[in-house]
Amino acid sequence: MQIALAYLALMFPDETVTSPKFYKVSRWMEDEFIMGTYAVKEVGKDYYRDADALGAPEGRIIFAGEATGAQRPGTNESAYASGTRAAHRMALLLYCT
């Protein structure tokens, strides 16, 4: 945490950087259900079609995650974009139906 706070202080020199009240560290390589996995393009597979299928809503169930984003699979950028997409779809379901 101290390293992250030091970087934040460098990034925002005019701001006071304080420790968060709570934080959680995940250790993907030690999680028996995850084991450090992430989405990758497999040779000979249509990753773009598969990612679109994984991200497609099923009725009122909406999916998000880095594996559901065809543009940059396996990245935080893809996870964020898929969360934004899911939030938009949820808003449409809640307010337009």
Task: Report on this structure.
The mean pLDDT is 84. The protein is mostly helical. The chain has helices at 2-11, 47-55, 76-95.
Topology:
Blueprint: H1 2-11, H2 47-55, H3 76-95
Please tag this protein with its features:
97 residues, mainly alpha, 0% strand
Q: Main β-sheet, in a few words?
A: none
End-to-end span in angstroms?
44 Å
Radius of gyration: 18 Å
Total beta-strand segments: 0
Output the helix-strand order.
HHH
Quickly describe the structure.
The protein has 97 residues and is mainly α.
